Amino acid sequence: MTAEGTTAGIVANAAVLAAPTFATSARQASPTLTAATTRSRLLARLNDRSAVIGIIGLGYVGLPLMLRFSEVGFRTLGIDIDPDKVEQLSAGASHIHHIDSADVARARGRGMQASTDFSRVAEMDAVILCVPTPLDEHREPDLSYVIGTVEAALPWLRAGQVVSLESTTYPGTTDEELRPRIEGRGLRVGEDLFLVFSPEREDPGNPRYSTASIPKVCGGTTAQCLEVGLALYRGAIDQVVPVSSTRVAELTKLLENIHRAVNIGLVNEMKIICDRMGIDVHEVIRAAATKPFGFVPYYPGPGLGGHCIPIDPFYLTWKAKAYGVNTRFIELAGEINSRMPEWVMGKVTEALNARAQAVNGASILVLGIAYKKNVGDMRESPAVELMELLAARGAKVAYSDPYVPVFPRMRKHRFELASVALSAPVVAGFDLVLLATDHDGFDYAMIREHARLIVDTRGVYADGGANIVKA
Questions:
Q1: How many CB atoms lie within 10 A of CB 183?
Q2: What CATH class does 7-15+31-244 carry?
C-alpha cells in the first residue's frame, strides 16, 4: 500500500478489479463450531497449504511475502489501494526494481491474484497487514494506514481466520487498536479469529538474505493465537521465533532498529570529530573492524533513510512517555542523525567557497537519490532532503540514479526531474558532484577524472584527491 494514500482512500478505492474468486470464497465457519474445531480446521489448512494467504499492502514488504507464500504452494491474494500497482501485478510485472518481473509472472502462473476490492478479505484464511506506519508532522506515530486498513477489512472478517500485523509500531498496538475493533464485530479473539504480530524484517536489495531465510518473530494475543501464527509462518519461513506476547514482538522490532539508529548516530558524531581532527573516519572504522570481538562496524552517511531507522525509534519514544520515561539516549541519536544533511550542506558550501563560488547559482549533480545503494527505494532518503536544501539556497539541482529514472511522487517532496545519464562531458559540466548514495553501477573512476569537484558522503574515494572533499 502506498504511503500517499489516505485513510478515506483505503475505503473509497475498494473497487473491484475483475478477477475470479477462489473456489472456497463462499466458505464461512459455522456458528455452531466450537473454538477448538475452528482452530483445528484453520491449522489443518495452514499445514496442508490449502489455505488462502491474503496480503494487504503490496509494497516492499507485502510483495516479497506474497511471492514467498506462492512459491511454497499456497494460494495467494493481495489487496492494494493503488490500481496501477494492482494492474502491473495482474499482468505479471513487478513495480519494485529489485524484484524480478519473472518472479511475479511465475506466481501469477501459480494463481496469485491482486485486487483493490476489500470484500475479497472474506476469501482469505490468513489476512496479513503490510501497510506504512509513518510519523506525523509532530514526529508522533501515525497509525491511520493501519486503522484505515483494519476498518476497511472489518466487514469481511469471519471466524476461522488469522490476522497478522507486520507494520512496525509501538508496543500495545495489536492489543489496543486491532483487538477491540475485531471483537467489536462479535468475533472472539483466540476462539473465532486469531490475532498475531509478526514484524517485517525485509532488507531490500540485500542478496545475502531473502524473505525465506530471515528468521521471523511472532507473538500472539493468546496462546491459541500464537499456535496459529506459528503454523502460518512456518509454512513459508525457514525459522520462526515465538515470543510470549504481541507486545514483546512489537518491541523486538523497535529494539532492532533503535540499535542501528543509535550506532549510526555514534559514527556520524565520530565523523564530525574526525573531520575537525583531519582524520579519515572510514579508515578508523576499517581498522577497528579488524577486532574479531566486541565491535560491529557501522558507517556514517548524509543522514538516515528508509522506512524503519529514521522513524521507528520515535514510536518507542512516544509510547515511553505514557510510562513517565524520557528516552534521552534514543532522542540524542535521532538529533545527531537528523542534523547530518545540514552538516553535509556546510561541507558543500565550504568546498565551493574554496573555489570562489557560492551555492547560489551553482550547478550541482546529486549522485544517487535512493536511501541505500543498489535499490530504488526513496523512503525518507537523505539525498532528497539534500536536494531540497540545495534548491532552497539557489543551486541548480540535477540527479543521476539508475534505479530512479524519474523523480517519483512523494508525500513531502516534489521535483520535476529525470535521472541524468552520466558521461565524461556531462560530469564535467557541473560545478559540483554530491555523492549521496554509492550505487555499485556508477563509474567512479570516470567521475573522479572528470568532475570539477566531488563531495563524498559515503567514503567511496578513500585515498582522496585534489577535487575530492570528504563529508
A1: 15
A2: alpha beta
